[in-house]
Amino acid sequence: MSGGTELGRFLYARRAGISPAQAGLTVASGPRRTPGLRRAELAALAGISSDYYTRLERGSETRPSPSVVDALARALRLEAGEHEHLRGLAALAARTVPEAPAAPSRTVWPGVKLLLESLRPHPAHVVSRTGDLLAANPGGLRLLAGIEEWPVRQRNIPRYVFLHPTARTLFHDWAGQVRGCVARLRALAGTDPDAPDLTRLVGELLLKSPEFAKLWERHNTKGHAHGRKTFHHPEIGDLTLGHQSMALEGTPGHRLITYTAQPGTADYDALVLLDLLGTRSAPREPSSLEDETTSSSP
Length: 298
What we know:
Elements: H1 6-16, H2 39-46, H3 50-58, H4 66-75, H5 80-93, H6 110-118, E1 124-127, E2 133-136, H7 138-142, H8 157-163, H9 167-170, H10 174-191, H11 196-208, H12 210-216, E3 226-233, E4 237-247, E5 255-260, H13 266-281
Antiparallel strand pairs: 1-2, 1-5, 3-4, 4-5
Helix pairs in contact: 2-3, 2-4, 4-5, 8-10, 11-12
């Protein structure tokens, strides 16, 4: 579906992704030409007219009331985070004057850099709202095997997982990793679709990665901020780590991502080795990536 609004495209994608049975409808047997729910079926579930819903999806109606938004979220079986995303899309569609996007700062505070160093040997890094790698401790950089070979300005987590040849074998659950990356970018597109940092990255990945293009059209915004990840690292072997992603307040969407292992375990010993390897390969303080000589991103 092209054209229209982000709100309309999100509704279309979610309507196509939910079956009548999942929505609690009983339908006659036989083939259906429409994937998922028909517009009229979703409108009935939400208690609105089919014509009004059609205008919402096509973008000619841009001011749904909060009650309509909530009814659509219930009909589509959206989870809490997805429901909030839908509310944001509705607010965005209602804007009458486009707001000029501000360039987000890439500066990492000294206190955050100190925090990165204090977490060693546990890998940790700071990323921008679009996943640019802004700062890292030695293990945090070395964990993403091969990313240090890229120019600093090119180091970006979504770009790495989709385009770097090592990423597919590094992450045991590569499919889950890429889904999470796309979900974060989709959520940002819902609130700031014209942001230059976002449009440049998405445009590049749409051009270079068919997998990204397919996932982008699903309009999924459900990510994972914590859990466990298994890596098949080319230097230190297999390890499974706890991971946590947390927002850094007072920044333009920066997040701190940490990976941890219990001391005394084989995974922890592997992290000590990774930290050592990262320290030996770093010409100077590795947490100040923005201070290194940079080149333009592609």
